[in-house]
Design goal:
Strand order of the largest sheet: 4-3-2-1-5
CATH topology: Hypothetical Protein Ychn, Chain: A
Oligomer: single chain
Number of domains: 1
Mean pLDDT: 97
Strand content: 15-25%
Number of helices: 6
Length: 118
């Protein structure tokens, strides 16, 4: 079984950013469907995607809902820095503060996870 940590760093501003988050969600869906150990982490400007994906008019909302059980969390520091802390918590997404208020990639790598960034 593969272990994969998908890290969304893309902002919400451009068409390319939307493509990156769509690819991250599709990768999570594929890996989940294949029975792999996959987790999604939202970090940096990517924390803003939690708010966007929970909007009822977001076309990627259903895709996000299908993999929400694989979202391990959003960076605690970055969610605050980008002004989305409350939106992240309202969406039921945990804040990750494993290393200096950020998610720990070292912990995931030590568990044998391959880290892929979007």
């Amino acid at each position: 079984m593969a272990r994969v940590a998908l890290v969304v760093l893309a902002d919400t501003e451009t068409h390319g950013d939307k493509g990156r988050v769509a690819n991250a969600l599709e990768a999570a869906k594929e890996l989940k469907g294949a029975g792999e150990d996959v987790e999604l982490i939202f970090d940096g400007a990517g924390t803003k995607w939690i708010r966007e994906l929970n909007r009822t008019d977001n076309r990627m909302g259903p895709l996000f809902d299908g993999v929400k059980d694989r979202v391990s969390g959003a960076c605690a520091f970055c969610a605050s820095a980008f002004g989305v802390r409350e939106a992240v918590l309202a969406a039921g997404v945990p804040l990750l503060d494993e290393f200096d208020q950020h998610p720990s990639l070292a912990r995931r790598i030590a568990r044998g996870a391959q880290v892929i960034t979007f």
